[in-house]
Design brief:
It contains eight helices and eleven strands. The chain has 230 residues and is α/β, with parallel strands linked by helices.
Length: 230
């Protein structure tokens, strides 16, 4: 079974109605990104940061996977699929994908501020000031903020190195280290980049750009791959 590795970004979730900060000049829901997605922002105003992610969770509970998420899940019938996502929502899980690496954390988990290895599944959508981990420290969103290490990068690189097919869907390819992941895919592997505006990537062997929104581009790719390999 061929190994298909898919890197997904904000563009795949946008079709489900999840807002992105990609096209709004670094603002996210009216906030400067660094206010709500950096350790400095957290130190400056914990309440603002907690409220921001509480609202993101509340919104995420109202949305459903779109055809792009569902098509990637369906491809597991024909390929060994690993999803590497920059998104913190759970739409890939909801759509039925079984192997998912979350590079930037997960919205519906909380984390200890004193011990990063203490991560908890959340029941509801709220983390409040005063909610503490078992070591008595304030809980924070389980999100990789700007300037923080990306601990899941190693497993993502391992997956990319093994890829027979590597696809990039709905990402601007500007956020590193994730943007560099395609460089680890073998030279001979087939590569797709699907986006409404395909980003400049430099030259890659066997690269097929598809300029379309995620649901349409994923359907085109899926048809081609099934005809070619399945």
């Amino acid at each position: 079974m061929k190994k298909l590795v898919v890197l997904t970004g904000a563009g795949i979730s946008a079709e489900s109605g999840i807002s992105t900060f990609r096209d709004s000049g670094g603002l996210w829901e009216g906030h400067d990104v660094m206010e709500v997605a950096s350790p400095e922002g957290w130190r400056k105003n914990r309440e603002l940061v907690l409220d921001f992610y509480n609202q993101r969770r509340k919104q995420a509970l109202t949305v459903e996977p779109n055809e792009a998420h569902k098509e990637l899940a369906r491809l597991e019938k024909h390929f060994d699929v690993t999803i590497v996502t920059q998104n913190v929502d759970h739409l890939h899980e909801k759509a039925g994908s079984s192997k998912i690496i979350h590079l930037h954390g997960e919205l519906f988990k909380s984390q200890s501020t004193v011990d990063p290895s203490l991560v908890y599944d959340m029941d509801g959508w709220e983390i409040k000031l005063g909610d503490k981990c078992e070591k008595g420290s304030q809980l924070r969103p389980f999100i990789v903020w700007f300037g923080e290490m990306v601990p899941m990068m190693e497993p993502a690189i391992d997956a990319a190195i093994e890829a027979d097919i590597f696809a990039v869907i709905g990402t601007s390819m500007l956020v590193y280290p994730a943007a560099g992941l395609i460089q680890y895919a073998p030279k001979k592997s087939l590569k797709y980049i699907i986006d409404v505006k395909v980003p400049e990537t430099g030259f890659f062997d066997n690269l097929k750009p598809i300029e379309a929104k995620a649901s349409i581009g994923t359907a085109i790719m899926s048809k081609e791959l099934i005809e070619k390999y399945a």
